[in-house]
Amino acid sequence: MSKVTIIGKGRGWEEAPLDSLTWGITQLILRRPVDRVIDMNDYTLWGPVEADEADQAKVLAAERGVEYIDRSNYPLIDVIEFFDTDYFSNTVDYAIALALIEGYGEIRLYGVNMEVGSEYYFEKAGVEFWVGMALGRGVKVVVHGQHSTIMRTKDGLLYGFENSQRERVL
């Protein structure tokens, strides 16, 4: 079974293994080596610091021969037509959808926390939607990190019971 590790920039990104296929979200390549960068941000809407980091990430990816997928070369129409949805709330969503299109049998997430109190919390539903798309297609999804709120209830308990949710290997 082919596996891909998608690494966000949230807490726990540094725990991702170095010995497997890795896709870095946005400027993660500035922190560690990755095999592919996925960055779907529109930096004309962001400030100069973020745009400068994105430019640095592109240069570093080119120097290392790492594929850099952004809004200009992501197969958006193919993905939307294949899944019959255009529900994307962040770059992680696009990465999961691409992993599904490319046929990976296991997706591992590190540093994808969608923590309360951050802008990412408002994007959590999108990641969970795409995790559900993966599960519905028989793809194993492993969410790493104690700080991740993906596929977690607000109190970590199975609704209607006092039992903790099972380990987040879905």
Compact summary:
By secondary structure, the protein is of the alpha/beta class.
Task: Describe this entry's structure for a reader.
This protein is of the alpha/beta class and 170 residues long. The protein has four helices and six strands, in the order βββαβααβαβ. The protein has helices at 48-64, 76-83, 91-101, 124-136, and strands at 3-7, 22-25, 36-39, 67-70, 106-110, 140-143. Strands 4-3-2-1-5-6 form a six-stranded parallel sheet, with helices on both faces. Strand 3 (36-39), helix 1 and strand 4 form a beta-alpha-beta unit. The chain is globular, with a radius of gyration of 16 Å. The model has no long low-confidence stretch (mean pLDDT 88).
Uncertain regions spanning at least 5 consecutive residues: none
Distance between the termini: 15 Å
Helix percent reads: 25-40%
The quaternary state of the protein chains shown equals single chain
- Tally of separate helices: 4
Mean pLDDT: 88
Rg for CA atoms: 16 Å
Give the topology, please.
Layout: E1 3-7, E2 22-25, E3 36-39, H1 48-64, E4 67-70, H2 76-83, H3 91-101, E5 106-110, H4 124-136, E6 140-143
Parallel strand pairs: 1-2, 1-5, 2-3, 3-4, 5-6
Structural descriptors:
170 residues; alpha/beta; six-stranded parallel beta sheet; 6 strands
